Amino acid sequence: MNFARILRHFLTGRAVVRRLFPPTSLIAIEQAIKQSEISHMGEVCFAVEAALDTLPLLRDQPARERAVEVFSRLRVWDTEYNNGVLVYLLLADRDVEIIADRGINVKVSAEEWERICREMEMAFRQGHFESGVVAGISAVGSHLQKHFRAEEEPVESKNELPDTPIIL
């Protein structure tokens, strides 16, 4: 049992999320998602969670496992073209995970998603939360643009996932 991790999770609450992601940052992240989705047919969702609940924390649940749960709970997998991507931040661990639907995973390697996650985490260590998320969304969007390019003639496509950042 990692007592330092448990303490970090108990001390990281929603107030920390509000401090690191004030309304202006949430608007900037939402705009980054909207801008990204103009150039591709993919769906990007950003979710931030302050800390794990007690039971998962005591079971030492990794951020990756929690991200998969959130991917399912938010129904990111439920897009028409299987092209949803969740960018998940577990704030207490400063751990970023990217979970992509099967339509994207066959085209983008796990190593590439991991590289984007590590770059975001590096920005967070420097205290650049908003810019770290915006850069990560841009990097995800570059891959989606490559593999799910938007139509030349814009078709009225429905927005299947919310662009607004989700605070869990």
List the helices and strands and how they pair.
Layout: H1 3-11, H2 14-20, H3 23-38, E1 43-49, H4 54-58, H5 63-73, E2 84-90, E3 95-100, H6 102-105, H7 110-125, H8 129-147, E4 166-167
Parallel strand pairs: 1-2, 1-4
Antiparallel strand pairs: 2-3
Helix pairs in contact: 3-8, 7-8
InterPro entries: TPM_dom
Pfam families: TPM_phosphatase
Protein name: TPM domain-containing protein
Structural commentary:
- The structure is a single chain.
- With 168 residues, the protein is of the alpha/beta class.
- Helices cover 52% and strands 13% of the residues.
- It has a single domain (3-150, 158-167), classed as Roll (Diaminopimelate Epimerase, Chain A, domain 1), CATH 3.10.310.
- It is built from eight helices and four strands; from the N terminus they run H-H-H-E-H-H-E-E-H-H-H-E.
- It has a four-stranded mixed β-sheet with strand order 3-2-1-4, with helices on both faces.
- The chain starts with a helix and ends with a strand.
- The model has no long low-confidence stretch (mean pLDDT 90).
Short description, anyone?
By secondary structure, the protein is an alpha/beta fold. It has helices at residues 3-11, 14-20, 23-38, 54-58, 63-73, 102-105, 110-125, 129-147, and strands spanning 43-49, 84-90, 95-100, 166-167. α7 packs antiparallel against α8.
- Spatial shape: globular
Order of H and E elements: HHHEHHEEHHHE
The computed structural class is alpha/beta
Number of strands: 4
Rg, Cα atoms, Å: 16 Å
Helix content: 40-55%
Main beta sheet:
4 strands, mixed
The CATH architecture would be: Roll
Quick one: CATH class?
A: Alpha Beta
InterPro entries: TPM_dom
Protein name: TPM domain-containing protein
Pfam families: TPM_phosphatase
